[in-house]
Design a protein that fits this description.
359 residues, alpha/beta, Aspartate Aminotransferase, domain 2, Aspartate Aminotransferase, domain 1, 2 domains, seven-stranded mixed sheet, 11 helices, 14 strands, globular
């Protein structure tokens, strides 16, 4: 049987709440969005949650709400989804790409500190890639010493912890609720912050820049979340911890099943972090041939991401990031979602073992 790499989970609870939202007469904003925001802020251990219509929108709004201007420098890891870099482009800031840590795939703290000093960066935008929190201790120390803000891309890492807390103490943290994420609102995202002014600014910017009816403070955007999406998110949030535990259990099982395969490096988990395994990403020898083999066996898999951000032509960038260059040729993400059965996990591992036994 095929094994999918991702599977959104929608139950009767979500369907019932979505119908309730549809029948309410208020299809965007309003009480259901406010309820979702309250619950999300409490779950994430931040003072405020501002719901928007995508993780990309969350990054965009957070930068503007934090006062970042055209021409200022934003540091991002070279290894991430393009939305991380696009958000800098949107406000005509200058993205500077930083290499990653070989083990965690997250921004290298020492190289980030060097880049801050060289560029006088206004913002550091670390990514909690694949579900593991970035090195908040080191990144924060480097940024605060230089007066830079931290707006983190945690779009793959809802619920991830650093030193036991979901609040990473950044100026703002951004989430995504795309269907393949650990929980969904169909499309959607959110900004988490403890900063009252940033939160107020973000709420205005997402609503076409309008504070009160026809009182415009910003050239804003229509980034509102729908009531239907928020209703689904409210029910998903109730289930999230259970799903996260299943992802972690699946990751542990895969670690054990693949422990004897010397051509594979299973995911590294920083002891200070709680990994929520949005992706289970290995480093594999002869990666592309392994991928083709898994495809032929019906085993879902994907390369996140096949190229450094700085090499994407539309971003018009250059960078010296040798670790990222190397990792892009090694990484392969395998199924880890909560719907997997024990048989599915064995099927994944057996296919990998079978490939390397013939190599």
């Amino acid at each position: 049987m095929p094994v999918s790499i991702a599977k959104p989970l929608i139950g009767e609870e979500e369907i019932s709440r979505a119908v309730q939202a549809l029948r309410s007469g208020q299809l965007t904003g309003g009480p259901m969005v406010e309820e979702f925001e309250r619950n999300l802020a409490q779950y994430s251990q931040y003072k405020h949650a501002i719901a928007v219509n995508s993780g990309t929108a969350a990054l965009h709004v957070a930068l503007i709400a934090a006062g970042i201007k055209k021409g200022q420098t934003i540091l991002t890891p070279d290894f991430s989804f393009i939305a991380t870099a696009n958000s800098a482009k949107y406000i005509q800031a200058r993205a500077q790409y930083v290499d990653i840590d070989e083990k965690t795939f997250n921004m290298d703290a020492a190289k980030t500190e060097e880049a801050i000093k060289k560029t006088n960066a206004a913002v550091v935008m670390p990514v909690s890639l694949y579900g593991q929190a970035y090195d908040a201790d080191a990144i924060h120390e480097a940024a605060r010493d230089a007066g830079a803000k931290i707006i983190s891309d945690n779009c793959q890492a809802i619920g991830a912890k650093w030193n036991g807390s979901r609040n990473l103490k950044d100026d703002a943290a951004c989430l995504s609720f795309y269907p393949t994420k650990n929980m969904t609102t169909m499309e959607g995202g959110a900004i988490l912050t403890d900063d009252d002014q940033l939160a107020e600014n973000a709420r205005i910017i997402r609503n076409v820049g309008m504070r009160a009816r026809y009182e415009y403070l910003y050239v804003g955007f229509n980034y509102r979340m729908t009531a239907v999406g928020a209703a689904i998110g409210t029910e998903q949030l109730k289930k999230l911890d259970g799903w996260t535990q299943k992802r972690q259990s699946n990751a542990k099982a895969l670690n054990e099943l693949l422990s004897g395969v010397k051509q594979v490096q299973t995911p590294y988990c920083d002891k200070r972090a709680t990994h929520v395994f949005h992706q289970y990403t290995i480093k594999a020898e002869n990666r592309d041939a392994l991928k083709a083999h898994l495809d032929s066996k019906g085993i879902g898999n994907a390369v996140f991401y096949p190229m450094p951000l700085h090499s994407i032509p539309v971003l018009e960038a250059t960078a010296d990031c040798p670790v990222t260059e190397r990792v892009c040729k090694q990484v392969l993400s395998l199924p880890v979602h909560p719907s997997l059965t024990e048989n599915d996990l064995h099927q994944v591992a057996d296919a990998i073992k079978g490939f390397y036994s013939k190599a």
